[in-house]
Write a structure and sequence with these properties.
Blueprint: H1 7-32, H2 43-96, H3 104-124, E1 128-129, E2 132-133, E3 140-143, E4 150-153, H4 161-167, H5 174-227, H6 231-257, H7 262-266
Antiparallel strand pairs: 1-2, 3-4
Helix pairs in contact: 1-6, 2-3, 2-5, 3-4, 4-5
Length: 267
């Protein structure tokens, strides 16, 4: 029997240290909700998880961009609807002005309304959305995914000849009303095409936004499988390590008490 080197105590202390380390790791996982609390837990898994986290953030940003683009297009459509109504009334005025029972004085009254509606359309052509022109005809490149790919959203231009010819026309005379009708009808054809383009933009943007939502769900699920802790499984491990720590502590106390038996030999 030796007293300088207590191998039982050394072994118990080592095992207790290992059990304590495992218990602490289990506590970290349960408290953080992640099974990767440090790089050595899963080196490759951590690398993949970091990339997934970054991609999820970029998808969120792209989805926000798409939402803003949809709002932009919906704002365009709201204005364009009003333009269409104004053109409808202007076309009605051109026909009313061709009434042979009306005098030029009567037609001048129609002209006042006609020119006012034309000015209204011209004013809408200058509107913007958060500093971006709604109707300058420029295509806007909208970010549609996490890699920065873009979709060219077709622009609408309310300042082209099809509209300006209608808004600058006159119905103050019969001949002028006839020419104005032709110009307004051309503007109506153009506005219908422009509304169709806006509708196509919204349809594409909405479909892409739905696609990003599905992609985000799938990547989030994959990321969860890599780093999220299984609470039921980890709770079982925690109970196991907790028992080992308590047992190891008791055994270390017993091992440290063994050299006391040497005293009996010396008595």
């Amino acid at each position: 029997m030796v007293i300088n080197t207590n191998m039982s105590a050394l072994s118990s202390a080592r095992l207790l240290g290992e059990s304590t380390s495992l218990l602490n790791k289990s506590l970290q996982r349960l408290s953080s909700g992640s099974k990767i609390t440090s790089p050595e837990d899963d080196v490759a898994g951590l690398a993949v998880s970091i990339r997934f986290d970054a991609e999820i953030s970029r998808i969120g940003a792209a989805s926000t961009n798409l939402g803003d683009a949809v709002s932009f297009s919906q704002t365009q459509d709201g204005f364009v609807q009003k333009v269409a109504k104004a053109l409808d009334r202007m076309s009605e005025l051109t026909v009313l002005s061709q009434d042979v029972t009306k005098s030029d004085a009567d037609r001048s009254l129609y002209q006042k309304e006609f020119s006012t509606l034309g000015a209204y359309i011209n004013d809408l052509a200058t509107k913007d959305f958060n500093g971006t022109s709604l109707f300058n005809g420029a295509n806007l490149n909208v970010t549609i995914d996490a890699d920065g790919s873009t979709f060219a959203m077709t622009g609408v231009n309310l300042s082209i000849a099809a509209y300006t010819a209608a808004t600058s026309a006159s119905v103050s005379t019969t001949a002028g009303a006839t020419a104005a009708l032709t110009a307004v009808k051309a503007a109506i054809v153009q506005i219908s095409a422009d509304r169709a383009s806006i509708g196509a933009n919204v349809s594409r943007l909405t479909a892409t936004q739905d696609q990003l939502s599905i992609l985000n769900d799938n990547i989030t699920a994959a990321n969860s499988r890599i780093k999220d802790v299984d609470v039921a499984q980890e709770s079982t491990a925690y109970a196991k390590y907790n028992i080992l720590v308590q047992a190891g502590t008791a055994m270390l106390a017993q091992a440290n008490a063994l050299p006391q038996s040497v005293l009996r030999l010396l008595q």
